[in-house]
């Protein structure tokens, strides 16, 4: 119950921050002013957030010790789960939503404009900064920063995340198309987390065919959808080994997503970026998705992350209870 209430409270805070930022950004006085500092502030906050996350992971003995013991199993589950999510969301975007790679209706005037123009904000230069920030953070957490300082990383991550969500909302409001984007997405946006979950669990089951874990345990490990602080806790009473695989796999999913999103945005499609981070698409990875794509994709990413986050406490125990 406590976990569920905590999840709902976090969701309320995240939604409130994005909404407040969008309202402020949509005001005429704000929209009419050039704000070149807004993007720079988002980038700075994102780097602080990612470095802090790296420090926290690098200082975590469980993460480091698990790399050698269960790293291969976690890696295979993660890679296949992310690939399955991408495939399912790609098919959904093309054949159900009928959207182009920029997340626009196929054949629309706006599609032509973006195709002939810059094509959005996808920029692979973001990737090198993300990789560098994660690597430096983990190295600093493991070798340099004392444990008493690492304890404050959680607060830095929280406040950095709050600032980023507010800035993302403000950026959405400044575009002046937020309501139109929400209307265009409609209730069908709820199919996005369904596709992500189906791709994740289906391909995790495929990974289980090649692992000693088996199909059921591989699915259970992947059902955290990147929520590495909750899924292992739910799995610990069932199996400590599966819990450890789940922890490392979900950590990998968040890190790999942050690194891969700019490439997916450039070479596959904007909407598909929401598939990679799973539950983290609503919080820590949302600014990366928006930064690599367009503000309108925030609707798909945020909705998917919210639904998947709410599904984790239900799906993990349900998979564990399967009679095989």
UniProtKB/TrEMBL annotation:
Keywords: Membrane, Transmembrane, Transmembrane helix. The chain crosses the membrane at residues 6-25, 37-58, 70-92, 126-143, 149-168, 189-213, 225-248, 255-277, 297-322. The keyword Membrane applies. GO terms for cellular component: plasma membrane. InterPro entries: LysO. GO terms for molecular function: L-lysine efflux transmembrane transporter activity. The keyword tRNA processing does not apply. PANTHER family: LYSINE EXPORTER LYSO (PTHR35804). This is Lysine exporter LysO family protein. It comes from Lawsonibacter hominis.
